[in-house]
C-alpha cells in the first residue's frame, strides 16, 4: 500500500531537526491533515512534542531495538489512518550503532523507501555546502536524498549563494530555508529538551513553530515529494495480529504516568494492551495508592531527580507500593523507575531522599553521563521477563549510578561493552528493575512473560515459589 511519507534528517546533531520536524508536523496539521509523527532511534522526548503537534501518539522506529519486519509493521499500523507520515531522524543521517550502523536514519529511510529532506546548518558556509550535500547523497545511493532545508541562513544573499551551489552541483532542490534565530526554541535545561509532559501549555510555542515553517518551507513541494514515495516495501511482521489470539480476559496493570515518569514507547504499551493488559495510569507524585485491582505494575523512565521532594513526601503511595510488592505483585521498572524503587536517591549536593526501598540499593546522581548506548544484554537468572541467558536488546541513558551493600544482590542483566563485563539492575521472578529501556516489539518474549506473571498473580499464584 502507498503512504505519503517524508524523513527529516540532519547532517549532525544540533542542526535544528526537532524544531523543524515538529514545526512541519504542526503546520501540516493546521491545514487539516492527519499527520503521523515518528522518531528514529530510542528517544522519548522528541515524540512527546510530535504528539502535541499532531494530536496523535508519535512512534519510535529503530532497527537495533526492533527487527526490520517489526519496524515495517509499526510504521504501517500507525500510518494507515493518516494523510502523511513525518519521520524525524536521529543525530546525523548515517549515525547509528557504533559497530554496525544499525538504527541510523539512513537505515530507516532505505527500509521504508522514504524520501529524505536533509537539514543543513548554513552557519559560515558558502559554495562548499554543495560538497557537503554531495557527500551525503553519494555515501549511500540507496538513500533517496530528495531535498535540502537550509537553517540559520544569515540573509537572502547568503541564501542565493547556497541555493545556487547546491542545485547546480548536486541537482537536489532546496525546498526551504530559515533565517538564523527565526525558529522558536523548544524549552530546555541542562539535560536537553524538557519533556512535553512536564509543561503546562506548549500551544503558543508550537503555533509559532508552525507559522515559521509554513513561511520558510515550500509545503506544497514537501507534500509532492512525500507523495512520490510509492508503495511501502513488503515484509512487515504480524506481531499485533497474532498477539490478541486467545485473549479471554483483561489483566489490570498499573502504569506510572505523570511529570516524573513518562518515558514509554507507545507501541510497547499498545502491544501489552493487545496481549490483554488493561493499562491503568497512576501518579507517584499525586496519587495516594495504586489503582484498585492491579495485577502488575510498570514504572517507566523519566526524571525523578527533578521531583525528589514531592516523590519522597508522597508517603502513602510509597507505603502502598511496598505493601503490594510484599503481597507478590509483579513489578517491572526502567531507569527512573529503578531509581524510585531504590532505598534512596542521592542528589548532586549529597542530600539523601528516601524512596520506596524495594530495591536494596542507593542511586547517586552525577554531572557526567553514567551510561549511554545500545546494549545486547543477557538475563543473569530466571526473572519476571525471561529465563537465564535469554538475550534482550535495549538502550541506556542515565546520569546516576546504583550501588548496593548487599552481598547477595541479584543483578538482572549482564553485557559486554568495550572489553569489560557489566552488570545492571535488580532481577527476581517477581521484580525486574534496571537502567535498560526495552522496546517490546523487539523483545516480545519479555512482554509476554511479564503479562503471564501478572495473570498468574491475579489467579493467586506466588511468583517466587512458582
TrEMBL record:
Its Enzyme Commission number(s) read 6.3.5.11
| Increases nucleophilicity of active site Cys (site feature) positions | 437
Record's keyword annotation contains Manganese: no
The annotated active site, in chain numbering, is 335 (nucleophile)
Which GO BP annotation is one of this protein's? cobalamin biosynthetic process
What is its biological role? Catalyzes the ATP-dependent amidation of the two carboxylate groups at positions a and c of cobyrinate, using either L-glutamine or ammonia as the nitrogen source.
Protein known as = Cobyrinate a,c-diamide synthase
* Organism from which the protein derives: Moorella thermoacetica Y72
Q: Which gene encodes it?
A: cbiA
Amino acid at each position: 500500500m502507498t503512504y505519503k511519507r517524508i524523513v527529516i534528517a540532519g547532517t549532525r546533531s544540533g542542526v535544528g531537526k526537532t524544531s523543524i520536524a515538529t514545526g512541519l508536523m504542526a503546520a501540516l496539521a493546521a491545514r487539516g491533515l492527519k499527520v503521523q509523527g515518528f522518531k528514529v532511534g530510542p528517544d522519548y522526548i522528541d515524540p512527546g512534542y510530535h504528539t502535541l503537534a499532531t494530536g496523535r501518539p508519535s512512534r519510535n522506529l529503530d532497527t537495533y531495538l526492533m527487527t526490520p519486519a517489526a519496524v515495517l509493521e509499526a510504521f504501517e499500523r500507525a500510518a494507515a489512518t493518516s494523510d502523511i507520515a513525518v519521520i524525524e531522524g536521529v543525530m546525523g543521517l548515517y549515525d547509528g550503532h557504533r559497530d554496525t550502523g544499525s538504527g541510523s536514519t539512513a537505515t530507516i529511510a532505505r527500509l521504508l523507501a522514504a524520501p529524505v529532506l536533509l537539514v543543513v546548518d548554513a552557519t559560515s558556509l558558502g559554495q562548499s555546502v554543495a560538497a557537503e550535500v554531495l557527500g551525503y547523497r553519494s555515501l549511500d545511493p540507496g538513500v533517496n536524498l530528495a531535498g535540502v532545508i537550509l537553517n540559520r541562513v544569515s540573509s537572502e544573499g547568503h541564501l542565493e549563494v547556497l541555493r545556487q551551489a547546491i542545485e547546480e552541483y548536486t541537482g537536489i532542490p532546496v525546498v526551504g530555508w530559515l533565517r538564523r534565530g527565526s525558529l522558536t526554541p523548544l524549552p530546555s535545561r541542562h539535560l536537553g529538551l524538557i519533556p512535553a509532559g512536564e509543561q503546562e501549555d506548549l500551544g503558543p510555542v508550537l503555533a509559532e513553530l508552525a507559522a515559521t515553517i509554513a513561511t520558510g518551507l515550500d509545503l506544497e513541494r514537501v507534500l509532492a515529494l512525500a507523495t512520490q514515495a510509492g508503495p511501502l516495501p513488503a515484509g512487515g511482521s504480524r506481531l499485533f495480529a497474532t498477539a490478541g489470539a486467545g485473549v479471554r480476559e483483561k489483566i489490570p496493570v498499573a502504569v506510572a504516568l505523570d511529570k516524573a515518569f513518562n518515558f514509554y514507547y507507545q507501541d510497547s504499551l499498545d502491544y501489552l494492551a493487545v496481549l490483554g493488559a488493561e493499562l491503568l495510569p497512576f501518579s507517584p507524585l499525586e496519587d495516594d495508592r495504586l489503582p484498585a485491582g492491579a495485577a502488575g505494575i510498570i514504572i517507566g523512565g523519566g526524571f525523578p531527580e527533578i521531583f525528589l521532594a514531592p516523590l519522597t513526601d508522597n508517603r502513602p503511595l510509597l507505603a502502598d507500593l511496598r505493601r503490594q510488592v510484599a503481597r507478590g505483585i509483579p513489578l517491572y521498572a526502567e531507569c527512573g523507575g529503578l531509581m524510585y524503587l531504590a532505598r534512596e536517591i542521592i542528589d548532586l549536593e549529597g542530600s539523601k531522599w528516601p524512596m520506596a526501598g524495594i530495591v536494596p540499593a542507593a542511586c547517586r546522581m552525577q554531572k557526567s553521563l553514567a551510561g549511554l548506548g545500545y546494549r545486547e544484554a543477557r538475563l543473569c537468572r530466571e526473572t519476571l521477563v525471561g529465563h537465564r541467558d535469554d538475550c534482550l536488546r535495549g538502550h541506556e541513558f542515565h546520569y546516576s549510578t546504583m550501588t548496593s551493600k548487599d552481598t547477595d544482590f541479584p543483578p538482572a542483566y549482564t553485557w559486554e561493552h568495550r572489553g569489560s563485563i557489566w552488570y545492571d539492575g535488580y532481577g527476581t521472578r517477581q521484580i525486574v528493575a534496571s537502567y535498560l529501556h526495552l522496546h517490546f516489539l523487539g523483545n516480545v518474549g519479555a512482554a509476554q512473560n511479564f503479562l503471564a506473571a501478572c495473570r498468574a498473580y491475579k489467579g493467586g499464584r506466588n511468583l517466587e515459589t512458582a
